[in-house]
Amino acid sequence: MTAIDTPTPVRQQTVGRPLAIVLGLLTIFGPISMDLYLPVLPALTAGFQSTTSAAQLTITACLLGLAIGQVIAGPLSDRLGRRTPLLIGVLAYTLTSALCAVSPTIETLIIARFVQGLAGAVGIVIAQAAGRDVYSGGKLLRYYARLTVLGGLAAIIGPVIGGQLATVADWRGVFLFLAAVGVAILLTSAVIFKETLPADRRVAGGFVHTLNDFRRLLADRVFVGAVLITGFTYSAIFAYLSGATYILQGMYGLSPQGYSLAFGLNSLGFMIFGFIAGHLGERWSERGTLTVGLILTASGALGLLATALLHLPLTAIVLSLFTMVSGVAVTSPPATSLALKEYPDIAGTASSLLGLARFAFGGLAAPLVGIGGANDAVPFGTVCCVAAAAAALCLGLVRGRQPHAGPQIP
């Protein structure tokens, strides 16, 4: 591993508005891949004459691909640099999006979605790692807050666009649109994205060295706590992504367009509260901000379970979703900063474990929502409550960090 003994004076000079814009665009991989086709998920289920749980496996497959792909892409980007893996990943994402559009069966679509997730993971992990390459301190926390805001913005735009696409095209057209988005990001990245990890700051070594890096990270209980909090809170988010479309459209009678508006309201909360968290983290401390976010998340989750058990009206479930989603947004910037700020030398590897927890936990939670069928919201509320409680139990892990060996970059 290449040790860095002195500060890098050109660190902040590598950050310009074009690069910041590209790094922001890379964050839409996850939200846009998940959210754009949620309004047409019931139509996709009917088109394949499939079950709700089988259709939800297309979400799970993409989430697992996003999780596994980050574990591969993160360490590779620490060794090869950020740019080459990024361009390969975006190209593969574009091609697999087109493959999803022509899938003849639900089984084929599930496989294609998994590969699409593998490819899309590259952009997510590199957006986080490249940010750690060029930012530090308070700027790093604000950067992760901006990523949260942009993720929320993409989540607003995705379902709205998906709902409008549903009026002129079937679900296959949605995946063709994703392919077009991939082309746009590929061209933008090829022109603007310059290497953020110079050769003299890359790490050397093969598979064994990567395992040692993972071992180093997992020995840090603050890192582990931040990763687990991220994983559990995003379990609630992906349970929402998987189940809300059936509940709001099937049980409450919303149209795809109505669902996209309700989804957009919650995503607006995610965006606003994510922005606030980036500033509160510096004033209240990262751990204090995490506590506030977990309280909001648990309150919203309890509201969802109460709504399901008591059959409360639409307003109750929308407010509960808004509270839970906003709470997750508050936890995201401080958790990401706590996980990555001490590991500038292996930012890609650290980011990959964070992404693994986020999407793997979410992928496991998503199909559980459909256990009771499309007209039962109790499993949805239960999954969200369990996830919020588990995240709260992990808060004690982030109370203090033991000194560890490794190069630091101010």
Spans of at least 5 consecutive residues with low confidence: 1-14, 402-410
The largest pleated sheet is described as: none
Q: List the quaternary state of the chains.
A: single chain
SS field, number of helical segments: 15
State the order of secondary-structure elements, H for helix, E for strand: HHHHHHHHHHHHHHH
Give the tally of β-strands: 0
Spatial gap, N to C terminus: 18 Å
Share of residues in helices: over 70%
**General form:** globular
**Structural class of the secondary elements?**
mainly alpha
The whole-number mean of residue pLDDT values reads 82
- Tell me the Rg in angstroms: 20 Å
Q: Per DSSP, what share of the residues sits in E-state strands of 2 or more residues?
A: under 5%
Topology (elements, then pairings):
Blueprint: H1 17-26, H2 29-35, H3 41-47, H4 52-80, H5 83-101, H6 106-134, H7 137-165, H8 171-192, H9 207-218, H10 221-251, H11 256-284, H12 286-310, H13 314-340, H14 347-365, H15 378-393
Helix pairs in contact: 1-8, 2-7, 3-4, 4-5, 4-6, 4-14, 5-6, 5-8, 6-7, 6-14, 7-11, 7-13, 10-13, 10-14, 10-15, 11-12, 11-13, 12-13, 12-15
List keywords for this structure.
single chain, 410 residues, mainly alpha, 0% strand, disordered N terminus, disordered C terminus
Can you put this structure into words, describing what you see?
By secondary structure, this protein is mostly helical. 76% of the residues lie in helices and 0% in strands. It has helices spanning 17-26, 29-35, 41-47, 52-80, 83-101, 106-134, 137-165, 171-192, 207-218, 221-251, 256-284, 286-310, 314-340, 347-365, 378-393. Helix 4 runs antiparallel to helix 5 (83-101), helix 10 packs parallel to helix 14 and helix 11 packs across helix 13 (314-340). The chain starts with 16 loop residues before the first helix and ends in a 17-residue tail after the last helix.
